């Protein structure tokens, strides 16, 4: 029985839309469609691995390096005192790291995600993060 690709693999392949802010041959980063805060970005290895604890150590190191790069960018882009980082892994069976601008502990509560942010807000977040990376 064939296993279906994860939704993240479909975004990475271009079969589903995604607002990318970073891409290399091993890791991509794109905006969450259910953000905790504006600029909430997912850092995802291209390889489809379910659990971050089973990632090759070198790949995990690269994921966290990219997450730190994105953390600095979202802080700058959204004038945030901190960048949040969460590893959950229950919503999609493809290892990923949540990186987002954080202004306080309430920003870490997944009960507060916005399920239908305006397209214009996502476009603006993408533009601001890409500019902060330059």
Automatic annotation (TrEMBL):
Domain of life: Bacteria
Residues forming the catalytic site: 96
GO biological process: nucleotide metabolic process
InterPro entries (alphabetical): Histidine_triad_HIT, HIT-like, HIT-like_sf
Hydrolase in keyword set: yes
Domain HIT intervals: 7-110
Keyword Zinc assigned: no
Keywords: Hydrolase
GO function term, MF aspect, one: hydrolase activity
Protein name from the UniProt record: Diadenosine tetraphosphate (Ap4A) hydrolase
Native organism taxonomy: Bacteria, Bacillati, Actinomycetota, Actinomycetes, Micromonosporales
